[in-house]
Amino acid sequence: xxxxxxxxxxxxxxxxxxxxxxxGRRGKQALKGVNLAIPRGSIFGLLGPxxxxxxxxxxxxxxxxxxxxxxxxxxxxxxxxxxxAARAVLGVVPQELTLDPYFPARAALEVQAxxxxxxxxxxxxxxxxxxxxxxxxxxxPARSLSGGMRRRLMVGKALVHNPPVLVLDEPTAxxxxxxxxxxxxxxxxxxxxxxxxxxxxxxxxxAEALCDRIAILADGQVVANDTTAALLxxxxxxxxxxxxxxxxxxxxDGLRVFGPDLTSPHRLVFRYAQDGNSVRxxxxxxxAADLRISGITTRQPDLEEVFLKxxxxxx
Length: 315
Ligand SMILES: Nc1ncnc2c1ncn2[C@@H]1O[C@H](COP(=O)(O)OP(=O)(O)OP(=O)(O)O)[C@@H](O)[C@H]1O
Known about the structure:
Family: Belongs to the ABC transporter superfamily.
Mean pLDDT: 88
Order of helices and strands: EEEHEEHEHHHEHEHEEHEEEHEH
Distance between the termini: 42 Å
Radius of gyration: 24 Å
Protein name: ABC transporter ATP-binding protein
Bound molecules: adenosine-5'-triphosphate
Shape: elongated
Structural class: alpha/beta
Keywords: ATP-binding, Nodulation, Nucleotide-binding, Transport
Strand order of the largest sheet: 6-7-8-3-9-10
Low-confidence stretches: none
Largest sheet: 6 strands, mixed
Organism: Teichococcus globiformis
Strand content: 25-35%
GO molecular function: ATP binding
Helix content: 25-40%
């Protein structure tokens, strides 16, 4: 590892953003002390419902929004101390397609490289067209490209300056299944070639398919931040809903070890791993505690449900 390759591609500490209310609009604290570290070489998913603060965070990294507090570093560069250098190490693919319909692909990439001040000899326009599968469309105006090609051209524009970190903002919002798969393959390819990817999405399935790590943002705060594998292991837990013949005021001592919720006087809810043994142990303990059972149901919480639970816990 060289000095130029930090362990963390993005580091955010105590990040705060307060939008001041203007013209009768109320102010809003969009980020409430966010800490995140995105390892170099990873595909990192930033998830959250509408208004959680994802765009605000990305825009701070990209130098488009001024933060109210905390620190943000991209590829080791502090976005406040050296905004130009920070912009040079980051590529952003925005949510909206922002292409001039009459501009050919090659020209779009050339203009973008010009904006970054890259001398003609150092530009990688043809290489990018090749990688993006757009070489034979280099002179075709953007409006004649398919939806997938346009998306790839947007990615190309974000890569003209060869940034080590790429942000994809909702890359597959409103995109059909085939195109989604193509984009995912392409993101994986970029990542294999060394680019660290930060991806925002509303779709848990997308994050699950692509990301090594996932952070969930809700109402300006990080409510989960773990490897995708660890998050999914948590999600694999089953729920055992036990209806009781007689009401309970509190969880009996003999059951506390299982950490159940007494969701009503007549219902205990247990979460357990699918190891084949847990239900037997829970029911044994219920029997030992002399509790009469009037009904049992099991339930597998799905991804959306756990996501919502985490998110709603905050609001
Ligand atoms: N310029 C602004 N002025 C005032 N409030 C704003 C401004 N931009 C965003 N907000 C508010 O800040 C909060 C976070 O918004 P942000 O766009 O960062 O969320 P998001 O997670 O990206 O949402 P989405 O998934 O809908 O894009 C929201 O309540 C939003 O209304």
